[in-house]
Amino acid sequence: MNVVPDTSVVIDGRVSDRVEGGSLEGGTLFVPEAVVAELEAQANEGRETGWDGIAELQRVAELAADGVVDAEFVGRRPSAAEQQGAGEGDIDALIRDLAVDNDATLLTSDYVQAETAKATGLDVEYVEPDVRGTTDEGLEIESFFTDDTMSIHLKTGTVPKAKRGGIGEMHYGPVDDADGPSSEEQMAAWADDVETTARTSNQGFIELSEPGMTIVQYRNYRIAVARPPFSDGIEITAVRPVAVTTLDDYEFADELRDRFLERQRGVLISGAPGAGKSTFAQAVAEFLNDNDYAVKTMEKPRDLQVSDDITQYTALGGDMANTADSLLLVRPDYTIYDEVRKTHDFEVFADMRLAGVGMVGVTHATRAIDALQRLVGRVELGMIPQVVDTVVFIEAGEVDTVYDVTTQVKVPEGLTAEDLSRPVIQVVDFETGRPEYEIYTFNNQVVTVPLDEGDGGDTGVSRLARKEIEREIRSVARGHVEVDLQGQNEAVVYVEEDDISYVIGKGGGRISDIEDRLGLSIDVRTHADKPSSGFDGGGTGSADGGSPASTPQPQGTVVQPEITSRHVVIRMDEHVGETVEVRADDEYLFTATVGRGGDIQVSRGSAIAEELEDAIDRKQVITVVSA
Question: Model pTM?
């Protein structure tokens, strides 16, 4: 009997079984080049099925060399377009044509291929797929899980490890009963068991299948299988929830219940990885569902453990925006978005919230305010309170902080001039009712100002004001600049003596413009006028003004580098062509030659520029001395 096998039976290893069983005796085995090409493509993508199929072809070749069977490779390799259309049956059609041309029986374990071939009049031998995982017995790797195990971590050449314990008290370490490092063969078997079981079980499915990475959802396990070349070895990470909670298990439960039931909200649940964000999100989802809200989820991958009443959606066509469009037709009351991470995620979250859907987003943040700041620049500032009105920060499985987010038109805290009134986002501690932060536009920048006092009674707005004054003065001064705030609306600025005229401007016009922009009164003086300043007004850094004689002062000319979008620039107009050393607090940084334009330019992103910018950020004194 002449036989043409398709790709499915070659992968399953059923061809060599037929040969060794004698069922092909007296006939010829015609192996399609299309099968070889498909297996080669799968192997190049790092898929185990490709390697399994190639190993089977090698066994068939050995049997042919021993005279057990006559085997020929026939047909042509499929084109790139046909390879891309493999899922639509292009390669299967090539294989059926070869069966007709060689008057052969088609051997397949693909049910659709078998039925199609029968419909065209071909002789077909259909064999059941070789399923190596058994759904009744579950997964082999489940044996590593104990009651308090959240995740297991397996990798070729390493001892199996697990994360065990309660939320916030997880311990990562080797599995006690592991038989040493996992071999390549063992890892391949476990990976094959996971993927096969997910395909064949009604309790699982493959969430993502890309070259080198497969993500599986099976029962309450989310399993990631990584393979070379994406990873440097086969790695399996299986995660499951270790705690099922309700909203009653958390602090502020009554207040949060009332808040959720009052109206549809925009909520960000934030915290560090492993803090219990998803567990809290599940509790919120079940609470809303129990109170007659239509609840859906948006997840990629889907790993929230929620009841069957809550439908879990993933990225439609690989894009959560498509999922959002579909959900707007479904009309949920609340949607749980796990997780909101990239700019596109925040945009989709905001669009759905502004469409009137209650949104609960899960996002990574190390502080409660950081979650809100991730919206800045991604959502128009004035719209933030409409998108997110509640921030819940989770730490060690507990609700640590809850913020209420509102907007007002007011003068920011710490400023006094009425003409500085503007829209201000207030972030209020839910427990105490005390404002913790204000977010607003200051001098064309969006700033987040803490309202509590810092060290030495220096408020957040004071630090902001000092920074902005320094920035404004440095834009016109070439030397060192220092700022001393005198109350809420006055400041003294100390500059080099040569910079006085530049900063004040003709008739005081330049400093008046700066005062108007900042809403502050600014007095400009030289460094020599500052008590214990340590400057002599000439930039040499010699001890003066009451500085202790024993305190070493920076040598050379003090400069104030200007940072542009592409360069860090040091102005040295009177030293064109000279070779100089640039120092920070008298520590050598680099040597350079002053260009014809009277400046030194260092390209941003270079190692030298990074060192110089770091020194500027640390408020070190930058000096230039002759080399």
Answer: 0.56
